[in-house]
Amino acid sequence: MASDDEDECGYFYDDEDADEDGVAAFEDDAAPPPERRADYTGFRGGGIGAGIAADRLCGLRIFVCTPNPSSFQIRKGGRCYAGSAAITQESLYTAQKQDLSTVMNLLNIKQHQARALLIHHRWKIDGICDCFDRKGRERMLRDAGIVLQENNSLASGGSRIPVGSAKCNVCFEELPLNSVSTMDCGHCFCNDCWTEHFNTSVKSGKKQIQCMEVKCPAICDEGTVRCLLFGKYPEMAKRFDRFLLESYLEDNDSVKWCPSAPHCGRAIRVGAGERYCEVECPCGFSFCFNCAAQAHSPCPCIIWDKWNAKNTDSENIKWILNNTKSCPKCFKPIEKDGGCNLVRCKCGQYLCYLCGGPTGQEHTWSSIAGHSCNRFKEETAGKSLDTKRQQLQRYTHYCDRFKIHGGSYKVEMEKMGPAVAQRVRLLESDLNLPFAMRDGDWLTRAHRRLLVSRQVLSRSYAFAFYMFGGELRTRPADQATLGVAKNLFEDQQERLEHHVEHLSKVLNAGAPAVHQVENLSKVPVAHVPAMPEAEVVRMKQETVTLAKTVETLCGEMYKCIQDELLPLLVEPMSIAAYRPDGPDKAKELAA
Ligand SMILES: [Zn+2]
Ligand SMILES: [Zn+2]
Ligand SMILES: [Zn+2]
Ligand SMILES: [Zn+2]
Ligand SMILES: [Zn+2]
Ligand SMILES: [Zn+2]
Ligand SMILES: [Zn+2]
User: Fold this and answer.
1) Which ligand approaches the C-alpha of residue 299 most closely?
2) What mean pLDDT is predicted for residues 290-307?
């Protein structure tokens, strides 16, 4: 940190240089030469900043900064996802410095001015770019309360540029130039008065300290604040630095704390313009960037919140516990051990675990004549039931499916996961297979698709419960459209459900059995039977096709929700885009 402080003090002395330039300019009655300006920028930002500018704004806009700071050439291109980053206490400084450097280089302004502008725009660089487009550099800076030295009236008029000595307008002392400080606005006061002003401001929690002159909007130079405070109130200087760092987390719409509990100590920064997105912190926690709840797409934040509130309602849970699945033939309670939802009772009866209805033993779902149970049928609720009970029955329909797919996810993650990993290792090391076939990526990918689509399915029931339950206000004129969209959605959900079960079964057959995996450490790899080449070819073909289908169906469901269903609601809602591999993995930012 010591070297950083020195660095900041460097800016401070540099500002004094700039003042001298100002005097020189006044005497010569000419603007500083452009080359001088270009050097100045180079000194501040360095090559790294320019690289970051290109990186963060990749494709969005490319600024080419010419030696003359007032002329920018802007090229527009398509937007691209910059990727998310995980920020720790150690890398917070770096993260903030990146954004500061970007803006300092883009606009050729000083660090405290860049910070004021960024705080004004809640650290959204794309917001600054838009604003730049609309207003131009001068007006954008003025609107954010930033006073530039190069065009402040006092400095250019020269009326109060101190020569030799200066009088402080607070304590009315006449002091030598090395005991006074001038801010961007040209207002000059003695260092003692400034120090007390900074001390009071930091004490009251301010990170953007304004000039002492009445009604002057200029933000004081950070380097000056730090250096003066450090001399008399070192604790306050430290607190000021902490405020500045924390602003990056508190005033920043692109950064949020990872909501993991216990807290992992990281904050996540997402790419420009991403609000409805899901990210995975390096600690393993996946969350919705908009509402900071656990990832929940394709269910919108508001619905997810309602669903969770309802789910913890003890009355409902009691009712559901009393209504667990029992065999349609022998009526004994059924326990499920795998992820698959075609279950066989001890008595030999096959049933669909989702609805409890009897089915044939054929697993290929399409061959079970007319078996379809993802829709809630109002008529089956029966006329004799009172409304409350009917509502509960409707809720149970959705809640059951939500929980069962969630349970399948857990099994497919915890038990099938290691089995799939083992099969991948076998495939990659099987010397009996032709070299080109010693690859298990397709299997890993398919398993990931399965996990993601299980969650999509599970959450789709939470969404459907509210979307079609009449509880959310829909546009009255769109009732017919809602009916059509509901059918489309339920068809998609049904197809997705069938193919997910199918994929689950194929993967389960291809990976070693669960009990073998549990004591894998004791079983040498050679003892687990290898797959004959023909079998690998067949399984790969089936798996890849199914995984592709599942991916397409998930994508279609997200599209249906975002484009067909959500626009029918009075309250606007949005969902994160579908990502076949799950939430974007935030990369740890180097300190
Ligand atoms: Zn004074
Ligand atoms: Zn001022
Ligand atoms: Zn975390
Ligand atoms: Zn959310
Ligand atoms: Zn039975
Ligand atoms: Zn069923
Ligand atoms: Zn299928």
Assistant:
1) 4
2) 94
Q: Distance, CA 85 to ligand 4 centroid (Å)?
A: 19
Cα–Cα distances in angstroms (integers) from residue 136 to residues 70, 109, 131, 155, 425, in the given order: 10, 14, 7, 23, 58
| Tokens found for residue 308 | 């969770």
CA distance 21 to 15: 9
Tokens for 213, please give them.
């002159």
Which ligand has the shortest distance to the CA of 356?
A: 6
Q: What is the mean pLDDT of residues 33-43?
A: 32
What CA–CA distance (Å, rounded) separates 265 from 283?
9
Find the catalytic residue in 9, 216, 291, 340.
Answer: 340
- Token pair 């405020």 is at which residue? 243
Phi-psi map region of 331: left, alpha, beta (phi>0 left; psi -120 to 50 alpha): left
- Asked whether the CA dihedral 391, 393, 394, 398 is positive or negative, the reply is positive
Residue spans per domain, the chain: 1-34+85-293+586-591, 405-575
Beta-bridged to residue 278, according to DSSP, are: 288
CA distance 126 to 74: 13
Residue in this structure with the two tokens 């180079």, named with its chain if needed: 42
How many DSSP H helices and E strands does the chain contain?
A: 17, 16
* Among 52, 114, 119, CA closest to 82: 52
Residues facing residue 351 across a β-bridge: 343, 358
Partners of residue 310 on adjacent β-strands: none
Distance CA 493, CA 515 (A): 32
Gap from CA of 301 to ligand 6 centroid (Å): 28
Residues with CB under 5 A from ligand 1 (ion): 168, 170-171, 190, 193
| Catalytic annotation present for 340 | yes
User: Between 96 and 149, where is the model more confident?
Assistant: 96
Span 93-147, pLDDT tens digits: 888 998 899 999 999 999 999 999 999 998 888 889 999 999 999 999 988 888 8
Q: What is the ipTM of this complex?
A: 0.62
Domain 1-34+85-293+586-591, architecture per CATH = 2-Layer Sandwich (3.30)
Which carries the bigger pLDDT value, residue 487 or residue 207? 487
| DSSP assignment of 278-330 | EEE-TTS-EEETTT-SBP-TTS-HHHHHHHHHHHT-HHHHHHHHTT--B-TTT
The whole-angstrom separation of Cα 350 and Cα 362 is: 9
- Dihedral of CA atoms 37, 38, 40, 43 in degrees, nearest 10, equals 180
The ligand whose atoms approach the alpha carbon of 365 most closely is 7
Task: For CA atoms 103, 106, 107, 108, give the dihedral sign.
Answer: positive
DSSP for 63-105, written as a single string: EEE-SSTT-EEEEE--------EEE-TTTHHHHHHHHHHHHHH
Residues with CB under 5 A from ligand 4 (ion): 288, 290-291, 301
